[in-house]
Amino acid sequence: MGKLSGGIYHNDTALINLQSIVFKKFILGNQLHPDCFPMLRYLDAFLVKQSVALYCSMGKENNPSYDISDLCGVTTSGGTESILLACLCARNYWYQMNPLLKTRNQKLKIIMPESAHAAFYKASSYFNMECCLLPLTNDYVANVNLLESYIKKNKGTVCLLVSSAPNFPYGTTDPFAMFNSMSLKYGIPWHIDCCLGSYLNPFLQDTSIKPSFATLNCWSLSTDLHKYGYSAKGVSVLLSRNKNYRAYQYYKQTNWNGGLYGSPTLAGSRPGALVAVAAFTMLHIGLNGYKKCGFEISDSVIELKKFVSNGITVKLENGTIIQNPLKILGDPKVCVVAFTFKYSDESCYFLGDILAKKFGYHLSPLQKPAALHYALTRLSCTKENIERFEKCLIESLKEYYEKKLEAKEKGELKQNDGDTAALYGVAGSTVTAGVAGKVIETFLDVLYE
User: Fold this and answer.
1) Where are the N6-(pyridoxal phosphate)lysine modifications (predicted)?
2) What is the pTM of this model?
3) Euclidean distance between CA atoms 184 and 175, whole angstroms
4) To 5 degrees, how large is the angle CA 367–CA 162–CA 94?
């Protein structure tokens, strides 16, 4: 257990049994009809209110007068829909505040780090927006020193600032201070993507990377219940600073023959069973349960960082000793550890293949730079699994170096030169960048064959 990077976040049998019972009870429920399913409306609101409380408790002691009553949100089908809605909301708001831009059909801009989730690109494609990418620092966080120059360069067309807490590739959290300052100075909405950090963030021991509405000028925030909220796929929550801003994501149709129509999210009908499962999951785990899981996972991240950076000794058959050949990317503290070789002529993809085929560890391959990342969960953060992984990593490195020359001769060694790309969502896969688009298209087609 625990050999998969992310993907499966728990194996709690009692919780799975509870989720199955709840799903069956609410299987016919639909949030589109709150009059028919009043309990679903209550559970829907419960998830939003609990998420608001968690993302306001951090830092409230420093701002005790902060009023959380304005904060609100919606549940969605997952992190992607939460991000799509955050972008749509910001676009609609900015057009309302700047009507000439809409009259001219001016494409609005999203300023975000290179490490921001792919769903922001999807949003820009769907909603006729443009992504302006902030380069990363050597610590693999957004280079916020360039933020104001990007805003000025785009002359009033920037409708959204985006930061991650943490990002998917490296598990690092973008610094809040400059995003906060620029959002206040220019009145630009700021979205914090907490889909991955979700219900770990409130319990982080490093307060500098804890996002909170009580201390930041954050306009919206996304957090996934189906990751570290431990619910079934797919439920996420999109929080908003107030109801006026949230309304910009709503769809309203008053002239339809079928009557007045409105929906808070992209979908019309929604599977109420998933919201019910998420609510009962939250009640089952409770605040102390989430806190315990959060501490265990973040402690495991720290342990794994130390080992990968300074705890590896590889002894080859010919007597050669290789000390600490890997390096951590950035300074992750939440749930993800990303690493690669210290030298560019090595291949972390080949190392990943050995880890998967020989030891069953399926880590996620990254690109730019080529690397591997391990998203730790309740399954993988156990002492037993961490110790096992460390041993398997050393054995994999030994086999890697022993077979390196042989693999090069056979053409199996995939160099870290940017010619290969990771296929998100399929652990351990790599494809050639030149045909990556067609490979993705074919892969998606095959899913429905």
Assistant:
1) 227
2) 0.91
3) 15
4) 135
